[in-house]
Specification:
The chain is α/β, with parallel strands linked by helices. It contains 24 helices and 22 strands. It folds into 4 domains: 203 residues, 3-Layer(aba) Sandwich (Rossmann fold), CATH 3.40.50; 123 residues, Rossmann fold (3-Layer(aba) Sandwich); 191 residues, Rossmann fold; 124 residues, Rossmann fold (3-Layer(aba) Sandwich), CATH 3.40.50.460. Strand 7, helix 8 and strand 8 form a beta-alpha-beta unit. Bound molecules: adenosine-5'-diphosphate. Catalyzes the phosphorylation of D-fructose 6-phosphate to fructose 1,6-bisphosphate by ATP, the first committing step of glycolysis.
Length: 742
């Protein structure tokens, strides 16, 4: 390549397009690209109707003012449209596309689509200099224009409900689709239970069983068919036996989930009709089919999709700016809970390999390529499905107990359900302690049976009760130890938040003094606040974030006829996680966190900046304040301040979201994680019990891995005077919030 040809010009304009199937979160991505670019003084052109718009040009490629992206974060689909384009598959089409770009001074492109769209973009980039040379030859553009755009800067990320792309653990839209499917399955469960009926539900996923697998795990489906792992040869007999056995132990209904692309070991499709006919014959009862179809694509994006798309969009702009040397294109993705980049074409090739493995019937290979999280979810789905109460035959009959602590959090029941079923499956007696550690001290303990936890996977609240009591006084510890001894508790599973962890540590701390306390104890992080040590994320927080997002969407809508600033207070005690993530997912103008506090100067600057925006036509402002941000500048005080200073420009109202954040049915993510983490913890307890070990631990997500941290380390991992851990990974999102704010 000649020196002249490789001289890049300063990046001044970026085009962004959405392509392939639409996915919730695409709007959040476009908004993020627009705002991030504006901060860096770069123009953004929205290409409407995907590659069709890029080829057609004209009005389909329009400069986008960042203000145009106000009010799109919460909308499903893609406001700039998507289309399939046959022309772009041809060189002719790509020639027109290149001309349309350089004529507008654009040589940078963000593509949000599936693997097809990204592969197409890569081809376009490879041909770029050839296309421009041809345009110069035919006189369509000048040599100067061609020289000014020596290469195409390209980056992309995946918008696809299928979650079928390598290079990212999650694609944008998959979490929202899972929400839609789980809502539908929950609804079907209630009607199916009323009539003792079986439903066969077909969900999307031609090559990828992600949606089928996770929705089955999140709703306790009786059976699931996914393309990556065809069932055993004798599956028709197995599935009938399985559902009959379920009925015999008292389950009133069954739901079978079938992925669109499900197949048998010979590669023949397993259709929902096929499954229905077989079950009707085997069970001798009516079986109904529900094909969920396009509802799975629709609706408002989930909190996670909004956040993820925002982060991806931001990084896309940063990476394009950094590309000064015709770098091979990158895919932006989420890996191990970190937003990272990987070589785009490696990801495309890897993705296509999964399909090839399935076509050549190398199913184990296909499953391996799907990654660890998928495999673990598959393994646990199978274990939960197959787990059945067995008569205890061994002498080593252990008794394990499960207890909550802290505020109620969505996912608690799912965790107890998994503990009961998996504990029974090990041949153990499983005890539920009622009303937290107070119940343990008082001996409020009940033996649990298989059917006692039926339906609990989807229920909010905490059926066995929870509270914030921590046994601290010597008498409390002594009485607790007595109860543990009296009930012959060999191992303790603690599922909850701050108080639960403190209580677990208190008991563990006194194990030398009281032999009854010298048992393995394992803690599962389950609180909406996400304020626990030894984990980057607690279960329950995702549901709370979705609750915040739904409420703030409504609050915004309520202000249509007025100019108004809402000061929204969210939970968190001393931890700003819900405020930051909730603020990012709702497009908050300002976010106040306990980690940073609030100052008078800061408030004055914020009032001034917002007033400026209202003067320029802004209609609704949202400020998200974490409940523990500041003792003096309360939500009321801040609201009064904005009300006074808003004058004629806007008025101000407060909205304290309160306990709704702890309620509601758990999100799909929280159900799945509650089940997976509990399963791991039961394995941990089992290993300790069977080997005579006494280790105690806290399970948690650390850089995407599930890890156990010794419970003795608890004091060093938490702040001594406030309720939060020493390390908080999520705080890095602060920078993103500043870029995104208005
Ligand atoms: P997805 O991006 O969801 O995988 P498609 O495979 O349908 O969806 O691709 C969307 C669009 O991307 C196509 O209509 C076409 O314009 C473009 N495209 C896909 N593959 C290629 C390719 N190999 N070369 C050029 N363009 C392509």
């Amino acid at each position: 390549m000649s020196d002249v040809a490789s001289q890049p010009s300063r990046l001044s304009s970026i085009a962004v397009l959405t392509s392939g199937g639409d996915a919730a979160g695409m709007n959040a991505a476009v908004r993020a690209v627009s705002r991030s670019a504006a901060r860096r003084g770069i123009d953004v052109y929205a290409v409407h109707e995907g590659y069709h718009g890029l080829v057609t040009g004209g009005d389909l490629i329009r400069r986008m003012d960042p203000a145009e992206t106000d009010g799109i974060l919460h909308r499903g689909g893609t406001v700039i449209g998507t289309a399939r384009s046959r022309e772009f598959r041809t060189r002719e089409g790509r020639l027109a596309a290149a001309r349309n770009m350089v004529e507008r001074g654009i040589d940078a492109l963000v593509v949000i689509g599936g693997d097809g769209s990204l592969a197409g973009a890569n081809q376009f980039r490879q041909e770029w200099s050839g296309l421009l040379a041809e345009l110069v030859d035919t006189g369509a553009i000048s040599a100067e224009i061609a020289k000014a755009h020596p290469f195409l800067r390209l980056t992309g990320f995946v918008g696809s409900i299928d979650n079928d792309m390598s290079g990212t653990d999650m694609t944008i839209g998959a979490d929202t689709a899972l929400h839609r499917i789980v809502e539908a399955l929950d609804a079907l469960h209630s009607t199916a239970a009323s009539h003792q009926r079986t439903f066969v539900v077909e969900v999307m996923g031609r090559n990828c069983g992600y949606l089928a697998l996770m929705s089955a795990l999140a709703t306790a489906a009786s059976w699931v068919f996914i393309p990556e792992q065809p069932p055993a040869e004798d599956w028709p007999a197995q599935i009938c036996r399985h559902i009959k056995a379920d009925r015999e132990i008292g389950r009133r209904h069954s739901v079978v989930v079938v992925a669109e692309g499900a197949r048998d070991r010979d590669g023949n499709r397993i259709t929902s009709e096929h499954v229905r006919a077989l079950l009707e014959e085997g069970l001798g009862e009516d079986v109904r089919i529900t094909v969920l179809g396009h509802v799975q694509r629709g609706g408002a994006p989930s909190a996670f999709d909004r956040y993820l798309a925002t982060h991806f969009g931001y990084l896309a702009v940063e990476r394009l700016i950094a590309d000064e040397a015709n770098r091979p294109p990158e895919l932006i993705g989420l890996q191990n809970n970190r937003v990272v980049t990987s070589p785009l074409m490696d990801c495309v090739a890897h993705t296509q390999q999964v399909a090839e493995r399935m076509n050549s019937r190398d199913y184990d290979g296909a499953l391996r390529l799907r990654g660890r999280h998928f495999r673990e979810s598959y393994r646990i789905t199978q274990t939960m499905q197959q787990a059945a109460p067995r008569p205890v035959t061994s002498d080593r009959h252990f008794r394990i107990a499960v207890v909550h602590g802290g505020g109620p959090a969505p996912g608690m029941n799912a965790a107890v359900r998994a503990a009961v079923r998996l504990g029974l499956n090990h041949g153990y007696t499983v005890l539920a302690i009622k009303n937290g550690f107070k119940g343990l001290r008082n001996g409020d303990i009940q033996e649990m049976d298989w059917i006692d936890v039926s339906g609990w996977v989807s229920e909010g609240g905490a059926e066995i009760g929870t509270n914030r009591y921590v046994p601290e006084h010597p008498a409390a510890i002594a009485e607790t130890a007595e109860q543990i001894a009296a009930h012959h508790i060999d191992g303790l599973l603690v599922v909850g938040g701050w108080a639960a962890y403190r209580a677990a540590h208190e008991l563990h701390r006194h194990r030398r003094q009281y032999p009854a306390l010298d048992i393995p104890i394992v803690c599962v992080p389950l609180t909406v606040n996400n304020d626990l040590p030894a984990t980057e994320l607690s279960i329950g927080a995702d549901t709370a974030l979705n609750s915040i997002v739904v409420d703030v969407d409504k609050i915004r809508q309520s202000a249509v006829a007025t100019r108004r600033v809402f000061v929204v207070e969210v939970m968190g005690h001393d931890c700003g996680y819900l405020a930051l993530m909730g603020g990012l997912a709702t497009g908050a103008d300002r976010i106040y966190l306990p980690e940073e506090g609030i100052t008078l100067d800061g408030l004055a600057a914020d009032v001034k900046a917002l007033a400026e925006r209202f003067r320029a036509g802004k209609r609704v402002g949202v400020i998200v304040r974490s409940e523990g941000s500041d003792r003096v500048y309360t939500t009321g005080v801040i609201t009064s301040l904005f009300q006074k200073e808003g004058g004629q420009l806007f008025d101000a109202r407060q909205a304290i979201l309160g306990h709704v954040q702890e309620g509601g049915n758990p999100s799909p993510f929280d159900r799945v994680q509650a089940t997976i983490l509990t399963a791991r913890c039961i394995e941990f307890l089992s290993e300790q019990l069977e080997s005579g070990g006494r280790a105690s631990a806290m399970i948690g997500f650390q850089g995407g891995e599930l890890r156990f941290t010794d419970l003795t380390r608890y004091p060093e991992l938490v702040e001594s005077d406030v309720q939060r851990p020493v390390e908080q990974h999520w705080i890095n999102g602060r920078e993103l919030a500043v870029v995104m704010r208005d």
